[in-house]
Amino acid sequence: LTQDDLKKIAAYKAVEYVESGMVLGLGTGSTAKHAVDRIGKLLRQGKLKDIVGIPTSKKTHEQALSLGIPLSDLDSHPVVDLAIDGADEVDPYLNLVKGRGGSLLREKMVEGACKKFVVIVDESKLVNYIGGSGLAMPVEVIQFCWKFTASRLQNLFQEFGCVAKLRTLGEKAEPYVTDNGNYIIDLYFKQSIGDLKAASDSILQIAGVVEHGMFIDMATTVIVAGKLIEEEKVA
Ligand code: DER
């Protein structure tokens, strides 16, 4: 089983929660892509009807359009029945890191408006604590004086060995620009930052910060597809 097989298994299992007539939050990333593909297929087969999709990124909007999934937005549908999306990290309390694909703001808006948020991951995303993968915890910031904001973020978590880096693209290292015209500062921690709610509050108090990639107490269900634990070899 490849990692993509595991992503597909988790995604298809999540789509079993989808019922005709639902307003669906459509996630972003390589795992959520499989769920959106599956929904499109079930619609085409007539096995699902009257679905309205609320995409969490321009990329997912394009994918859903190409699949013929009827689309709308939060202005028209402020309550979403079910959202299905991937994650970059899942801790033991089902808190998440999201946003390595750059879509954290729209994801958090849509997933914050849904009755049920099903997260789909392969086992490589499971961590003992947020930041434990050593990969980025993204923060979306306005472009104005981003260096000032980045240094305030880094100082906020200096006791945890935090390093803040502007996300860039390509060999010219152009700043990455989100769907919303903002920049992303990626935070790297060397140890657990402890109380996530306190960390979230202190990040959001910094003027210039738009949103961050910690999704605290938001997931209803997490579906993990992983290799079977090796059976004990019976002597
Ligand atoms: O960027 C995002 O929030 C994505 O959903 C990310 O969290 C998961 O992306 P992946 O399924 O491609 O690993």
UniProtKB/TrEMBL annotation:
List the Gene Ontology MF annotations in alphabetical order.
ribose-5-phosphate isomerase activity
The UniProt keyword set, sorted, is: Isomerase
Q: In which pathway does it act?
A: Carbohydrate degradation; pentose phosphate pathway; D-ribose 5-phosphate from D-ribulose 5-phosphate (non-oxidative stage): step 1/1
Query: What chemistry does it catalyse, as a reaction equation?
Result: aldehydo-D-ribose 5-phosphate = D-ribulose 5-phosphate
Q: What class of enzyme is it?
A: isomerase
Q: Which family does it belong to?
A: Belongs to the ribose 5-phosphate isomerase family.
Its name, as the record gives it, is ribose-5-phosphate isomerase
Q: Name its species.
A: Arachis hypogaea (Peanut)
Q: Which residues of the full protein are shown?
A: 100 to 334 of 420
